[in-house]
Amino acid sequence: MKKISPVFLICFFTFFVFFVLSVNAEEEKKEGEVKFYPGMEIKKVGDVNVLMAKGSKLRHENDLLVIESAEEYVSPKLIEMDKRLSGLEIRQKILENEMEQLKKNRANTKE
After folding, report:
1. pLDDT tens, residue by residue, 3-54
2. Which residues are 42's β-sheet partners?
3. Which pLDDT value is given to residue 81?
4. CB-neighbour burial class of residue 29 (10 A; exposed 0-12, middle 13-18, buried 19+)
5. DSSP 8-state class, residue 37
6. What are phi and psi of 35, to 5 degrees?
7. Which residues have C-beta within 8 Å of that of residue 78, sequence separation ≥ 6?
8. Is there a contact between 55 and 73 (Cβ–Cβ < 8 Å)?
9. Chain-centre distance of CA 10, in angstroms?
10. Phi/psi at 63 (nearest 5 deg)?
């Protein structure tokens, strides 16, 4: 009987810990709480909460709420990124030319 009691205590302790953890997890979860990915937001339209990507648009078609499709959402973002990238490339070329000028000036001052 003495050999069983440590095993029993370990099992009882483990069960108790898992029970307490599960009760705490249930208490922390609020009713109506929704988990969603980063970059998502909830927009309230009338009495309805809509989970959608940040920056996406809703439109009304007759009595329906329509969230813009992935293509409609991504296309303007890609165009904006292309513009920013070309601006960065131009700025990089300007900085490279300035660096070359500074190197030439430094070489001339050393001579």
Report:
1. 556 666 676 667 666 555 565 555 555 555 667 778 888 888 888 888 888 8
2. 51
3. 95
4. exposed
5. -
6. -90, 135
7. none
8. yes
9. 41
10. -105, 10
Residue keyed to tokens 């990238």? 85
Tokens for 65? 């709420």
What is d(CA 71, CA 54) in angstroms, rounded to the nearest whole number?
15
| pLDDT level of residue 87 (50, 70, 90 thresholds) | very high
Residue 110 token pair: 């050393």
Residue that has been written with the tokens 């980063």 in this structure = 38
What tokens does 96 get? 């490279």
Are residues 58 and 67 in contact, defined by beta-carbon separation less than 8 angstroms? yes
Local structure of residue 56 (DSSP, 8 states): -
The token pair at 107 is 């070489």
pTM, 2 dp = 0.48
The Cα–Cα gap between 111 and 99 comes to 19
Taking the C-alpha atoms of 61, 66, 68 and 69 in order, what is their torsion angle to the nearest 10 degrees? Answer: -110
Confidence tier at 1 by pLDDT (50, 70, 90): very low
3-state SS assignment for residue 51:
strand
